[in-house]
Amino acid sequence: MKAYFDGGLLEFKTPLSVTWGTEFQKSVWQVLKQIPFGETVSYGSVARQLNKPKAFRAVGAAVGMNPWSIVVPCHRVVGANASLTGYAGGLERKKSLLVLEK
Question: Considering 28, 74, 77, 78, which one is annotated as catalytic?
């Protein structure tokens, strides 16, 4: 984590053991792991990647249940108009993480 916050780590390669969550949640978390450092995607974009284009609200719920904040970068998911929406750590923290990655 120190390397991430110091700007020296752009991708976590830590293997994660997923022992809980629905199959849908696990699929969302896998998509989140693929969002590159410094980039953002919308909830709708994640839903489309899962071939469930109308499931953007369900994607939001799965993002909110992400047990590995930062490592599985849920802070990189934003609203359709690039607005900062929902983050368990608070919107100020989400904004700070996105600024750190720019």
Answer: 74
pLDDT value for 99: 94
Q: What's 76's DSSP letter? A: G
Are 36 and 77 within 8 A, CB to CB?
no
Can you tell me whether residue 19 is helix, strand or coil?
Answer: coil
- Answer whether 65's CB lies under 8 Å from 88's CB: no
- What are the per-10-residue average pLDDT scores of the chain (102 residues)? 89 81 94 94 97 96 92 94 87 94 90
- Give the integer Cα–Cα distance in Å for 45 and 13: 23
Closest of 54, 99, 56, 53 to residue 76, by C-alpha: 99
Q: How far apart are CA 74 and CA 54, in angstroms?
A: 19
Q: Note if 24 is an active site residue.
A: no
